[in-house]
Structures
1.
Amino acid sequence: MEQKTIIILGGGTGGLVASHELKKKTKELARIMVIDKNDMHIYAPSFLWLMLGQRQAHKIQKPLSSLNRKGIEFINDEVVKIEPERKLVRTKNANFHYDYLIIALGAELAPEKVPGLTEAGYDLYELEGVERLREDLKNFAGGKVAIIIASLPFKCPAAPYEAAFLLDEYFQKKDIRAKTEISIFTPEALPMPAAGPENGRILRALLESRNIKFNPEVRLLTVDPNKKELLFEGNKTAQFDFLIFVPSHQGPKVIRESGLGNESGWIPVDAKTLKTKYDNVFALGDVAVIILSSGKPLSKAGVFAHYEAEVVSENIAAEVRNAVADKKYNGRAYCFLELGYGRAGFAGGNFYAEPVPVVRMKRPGRVWHLGKVLFEKYWLWKWF
Ligand SMILES: Cc1cc2nc3c(=O)[nH]c(=O)nc-3n(C[C@H](O)[C@H](O)[C@H](O)COP(=O)(O)OP(=O)(O)OC[C@H]3O[C@@H](n4cnc5c(N)ncnc54)[C@H](O)[C@@H]3O)c2cc1C
């Protein structure tokens, strides 16, 4: 059989799973390549512990070059153009032809969309931002802490809430909680809307029980770093002493410029097969957009990228082997929610259920926190 070339763009969550699954299932029948502009894979869920000094940056990242010893070719380069009609990917330094293409380029962070934000605060979603945050947090002696979600959609809908719970514990232990106000500002009506209103209300009550102020449906326009002031739509303002933000997200530049995506750069895909409108081109994870029967888009999270990558790999491998490619993603997913004090929540269910997702939250406990920690260890061991 003629060897096929399968190119995976992105060595993040989806790219790692897809490349390993494909290698395992196609063996010598396919040449598998991963292209990423970064030479390191960074495990983002650990940012929350990094923020508190409970992790070190070098321990939560691994070199993508280690894929080479597993027979997966890693190319450290930036993808600048995708030409599906010619089955061609252009990087800064070379051109690559493919038989199958998996786009797993994630979401691009665009903090600059809100003037003043970067100057005034700490980016919870970038390694450098979290490292700065950790250092300055050590010297914080109390005041107004604002956690702001700049716009929707954003990946890992739980992360800013987890940050708030963990900070509550951190300030308690530093004995400055009584003089510290923690407030969340978000365009959402309730936390984690994709998990349904019932879970949103549970989470809001949990925030209130910890004296974390929840400010819903606010749209941030600008930040004044000198006055330490947030300005929202409708002329509302809020003051802060310490600002932590989730930046705006958009589709990667190469997708926005190639016309493969919608106006925001997200690639529409079939919910069950992750096929795009182009032959043999799949998109998965954060870069893909799937509209649920509720009319809302599927959330962006690593767990979706992971399961979607398994489906896509299985189907491509079946085609390569001339077998039937009939695997379908069923929308099942789960997530841990750090609550501090060694406890976490756990929500899981069917995000494709109709008419609305069916997602249940388990009683918070130590076991879920342990599960989250074990998953981190497993992830950084499994693929490297
Ligand atoms: C603080 C935080 C906590 C989180 N916690 C969780 C959690 O607990 N559970 C969960 O499920 N999810 C969590 N997430 C979300 C999760 O990390 C992402 O949803 C997931 O990584 C998406 O996977 P992906 O493969 O689509 O994209 P990514 O993992 O982002 O990978 C995209 C890759 O593409 C590369 N790339 C981009 N553009 C180019 C280009 N032009 N050329 C070459 N390479 C390029 C990038 O360098 C990157 O390596 C968290 C995220 C954050 C920030």
2.
Amino acid sequence: MGIILEVKNLTKKFGGLTAVNDFSFEIKRGEFIGLIGPNGAGKTTVFNLISGFEKTNSGTIYFDGIDITRMRPYKIVNLGIARTFQLVRSFKFLNLLDNIIVPSLSKRGRKSSKEIGTDEYASSILASVGLVDKARIPPVILPHGDLRKLQIGKAIASNPQLLLLDEPFSGLSHEEQKVINDLIIELYEDGVTIFITGHVLRELMNLVPRVLAMHQGKLIADGPPREVANNKIVLEAYLGRGDEFA
Ligand SMILES: Nc1ncnc2c1ncn2[C@@H]1O[C@H](COP(=O)(O)OP(=O)(O)O)[C@@H](O)[C@H]1O
Ligand SMILES: [Mg+2]
């Protein structure tokens, strides 16, 4: 399996704070990999850097062998990276169908369907995330779990090769978590490479075969979840923070 994402010595500073500190890792095509760390560890910033929402101070990011380090977000989407946001975002005044149609008009989204920007294509995506019954409803009146499904639908409408999911389980009930969990597994089985964050290792324990752990911007462990859960440095990183761990 080839390398789909290569991150080399990534550093991002906000004033005096180093949010991401000399961070390096690789993801193979078809992998299912997690990124954990206590709140403030730098997980979202790593995603913001990969997706072009933040500019790095130093280091490089290669996607499929292409240097994307300073690329604009829309170009990165067109190459095949989609992301969801920890704080749910959607087009509030468009119904769910139109929320899906917008990203389906991206370059890769168009390639994935002959029925460009059609209701049929958007409906099939809404169906795959379990929201087809609500196609004509605006997102403002949806429960939180449905908004997370919509986020994932919007991300897959652009036909990504690599999907970045930022804390997709946070704020959800157990039942809602299960639905999202199954949806993510389906995408993985369809061949999408998945990189997923969580601040509670338990959420990712039975989901991903490999997890990266970060603390204060640094990579502190990389391995199977059960191994990482017993890593001394990881345990110390969580100690005294009041964060739930396992
Ligand atoms: N835009 C920003 N401006 C200033 N500080 C930021 C910004 N984004 C993140 N940070 C800081 O960077 C650190 C890492 O944040 P973040 O990447 O959101 O962590 P995580 O997602 O692991 O909780 C935190 O200390 C946070 O306050
Ligand atoms: Mg975060």
